[in-house]
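Something for you to look into today, if you have time. What I am after is a single protein written out in full by you. I want to see for myself how the chain folds. Could you add the entry underneath, on a fresh line?
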Amino acid sequence: MHSFTTERLLIRPFIPDDEELYCQLFTDEKVMRHSGGVIKLEQAKKNFTNSLKAIEKKKKSVLNWAIVEKESLQPIGIQAISWQNPTQTPKPSIDNINQVEIGIMLLTKANGKQYPEEAMGALMEYAFNYQNIDRINAFYANKNLATKRFLKKLQFTLEPTLQPTTAENSYQYFDKPQWQQRLITNVID
C-alpha cells in the first residue's frame, strides 16, 4: 500500500493519529446523511482499529487512506477501495475480473473545493496501475447530488438498465479500458 500525491493533496495509508478524523466523519450527521446514518463513537473506534490491523497485516480486502491537504497539512477526509466478487455487482461479467468498490468521505470544511475529483482520480490511477484492478464500482444514494456530479466529471458510466431496483440508490462503474482510452486521449490532445 502506497502514499501518492496530487497537486493539492497527499493521500496516505491510515496511521494511528487518523482515529480522530475517522470517528469525526462517521459520527457526523451531515457527512453520514446519505451513507446509512451515523454510527456510535465506540463502533467507529472499533472499525478504525480493524482498518489499521488490516493495513498492518497487508490484507487486501479493504484499503483505506487519509486525505491530507498539502498546504495546511491537515487531514480533510478518507477514501477506500474494497474488493468485490464479480457476482456482487449489477454489471455482470463472464470473466473473473478484479473489481473494487470506491468510496470517499470529506469533512464539511473541505466541501466545494473539488477535492473528491482530485482524490478519487488519483485513487483510480493507483487502483488501475498498482493494484491491477479491472473495474471500479461506485454505489451512492440518489439524494447525494455531489457524488453524482463528481462521478460524472470522472466519466463513470451510468447505465439505466443496471440501476438497483429501489429508486433510493444508484450505481456507476469505470473500467480499465475506459481509463486507458482516457490516457491515450489526453496524450494525443
The two ends are 32 Å apart (CA to CA). Residues 25 and 31 are 6 Å apart (CA to CA).
